[in-house]
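Revision sheet: structure tokens.
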Amino acid sequence: MNRLTFQHAQVQCTVNINENRTLTITGSVIHPARFARIELMAAAPMDRRTSYSGSGLPFPCSGMALEGTPNYVEVPVTDEGNFSALFQYPNSYLSDDAHTKVPPSVFVVLTPRGAEGPILIRLELPDELPVRTLTDRAERKALGPEFYNAKVEVIGIRGAEATLRALAELKMTRGLA
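Predicted:
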């Protein structure tokens, strides 16, 4: 079990990551009487699939990540401001620019009494699959076409058997594989 502690001006919170991929969230809101509504939410859990593109892909946007999520609870506003919830481990999703990956997170939404807008507090969790994404990673784009051209320069253009033999020799001499 992994334990994370979060401190914020309005919230103190502890998130326990359990072995069965669930989160036990406990905490308290500071000065809870100032708020008309307290909500906890997180993206839906990761999809486990057997497909060509693979398993554990992030959601393409926040709307799809939060739509119908089982990770939502509205906490009754009490004098103590304590809350507790059990969530499934949330998946990551892409931001509105479709390239920036938002790691798995739990959001605490505090709606103040009056005309003010809600306060959104993000509690970031460890990303179990940091390189899984729906688009090319920025590191690959920065390399440009030269990244793919390196193989041609090292191995050359040959027949199938000659290419495989050259790859095997390259792996042995450079300690790859």
